[in-house]
Write a structure and sequence with these properties.
The protein is built from eleven helices and twelve strands. The termini are far apart. The chain is an alpha+beta fold. It has two domains: about 190 residues, no CATH class; about 110 residues, no CATH class. Helix 7 packs across helix 9. Bound molecules: iron/sulfur cluster (2 copies). One iron/sulfur cluster binds next to helix 8. The site of one iron/sulfur cluster has 13 residues, from helix 10.
Length: about 350
């Protein structure tokens, strides 16, 4: 366990950024998002929920696979590789860190998505415990403890008093801490016990503490057939897709060609199950109404995904979709309603 005075953090970040691409939560206009470290940026480690999640570092919004060019009658293809410089995400909250596990289960199973894997392999995740969880947080419903080390962390950190404590949890984390060891002093994990106890009490007192998706015991078929409930939800939905784009676990994408005449690119881009042309194929679209699309989104997160992944839910309780939905669709209410007898 190491620690550093918080007033010395700019020195630490400067040193890390000499060897790695470093990203931290920072003010970007009116929003707070992870951005590339520069000395004049207004870093906001106090913010729990950045506007966008960190999924874009492993699953970019758009990503070019290959470029093509017509040279007389010959088609030249140039694959585009992922940059190999390592990067550090500093200040990831445990809910967002947990989302990597949800996506790993999809992209790292056979056949492995080589682009996603390349992004994951070169990333170092530095988590930050949540000293002041918000009333809208419900990560604990999904087994996430905001006071402890995330299993996905390469380095876990805690803010206590004037210090930031850092605990390396993987080889990558050790390597990063060793590269800045001259800036750090020794700390003791016992110095964090009181802080962790305080955070746990705050988590226990959150209004959504009792939310429990395991109370959803209806059969998949029964949930699927709750037509009135899905109808009531979906008639409000504007099909804007915001909920899926801000969600750290939503991972649907489309693959498209940009045709620039004699040259072009094949790229993938985020897609959304809430949009009417999602998965449209030559024969048409398997989901033809907004009711089917809204039902799919919630059932995927709370029923299908856990059924196929040993009970792991495809939601980490970050609350972004609730905050961003222009008409107030709320996954908490869905969990409660599905869990009613
Ligand atoms: S709360 Fe909403 S945005 Fe956050 S992980 Fe769950 S479904 Fe996604
Ligand atoms: S953000 Fe709200 S309105 Fe937009 S697609 Fe999602 S549920 Fe529908």
């Amino acid at each position: 366990m190491k620690r550093i005075l918080k007033s010395n953090l700019p020195e630490l970040w400067e040193s890390i950024s000499n060897n790695f691409d470093l990203f931290l939560p920072m003010e970007q206009g009116t929003l707070i998002n992870f951005g590339a470290y520069e000395t004049d940026k207004n870093i906001r480690l106090d913010i729990l929920k950045t506007n966008s999640s960190v999924k874009e570092f492993v699953f970019p919004q758009t990503e070019t696979y290959l470029k093509f060019k017509l040279n007389k009658k010959k088609l030249e293809l140039t694959p585009v590789a992922v940059e190999d410089r390592e990067y550090v995400l500093f200040g990831v909250r445990n809910c967002d860190a947990a989302s990597f596990k949800v996506m790993d289960n999809i992209f790292l199973r056979q056949p492995v998505d080589t682009y996603y894997k390349a992004h994951r392999d070169r990333g170092i995740i530095v988590t930050l415990a949540c000293n002041n969880p918000e009333e809208t947080c419900f990560c604990s419903a999904f087994g996430i403890d905001a006071s402890e080390t995330s299993p996905l962390a390469d380095i876990a950190t805690w803010e206590k008093g004037d210090y930031l404590y850092l605990d390396a949890k993987s080889e990558k984390g050790e390597k990063l801490l060793n590269s800045v060891v001259t800036l750090l002093e020794d700390g003791e994990s016992s110095e964090l016990e009181e802080l962790k106890r305080e955070i746990k009490i705050k988590l226990e007192n959150l209004s959504l503490r009792k939310l429990d998706p395991k109370k959803i015991t209806k059969t998949q078929q029964d949930i699927f057939e709750m037509e009135d409930f899905w109808e009531e939800l979906s008639k409000k939905c504007l099909a804007c897709g915001s909920c899926t784009f801000v969600c750290p676990t939503c991972h649907c994408y489309d693959v498209k060609d940009y045709d620039g005449g004699n040259s072009g690119e094949r790229y993938r881009c985020w897609d959304s199950c809430m949009i009417s042309d999602f998965t449209r194929m030559a024969h048409g679209n398997p989901r033809t109404s907004q009711l089917q699309r809204v039902r799919q989104r919630f059932m995927h997160k709370l029923v299908y995904y856990p059924k196929n992944h040993d009970g792991l839910y495809s939601c980490v309780g970050c609350g972004r979709c609730i905050e961003k939905c222009p008409v107030g669709l709320n996954i908490v209410r869905v969990i409660k309603r599905l869990g009613e007898e």
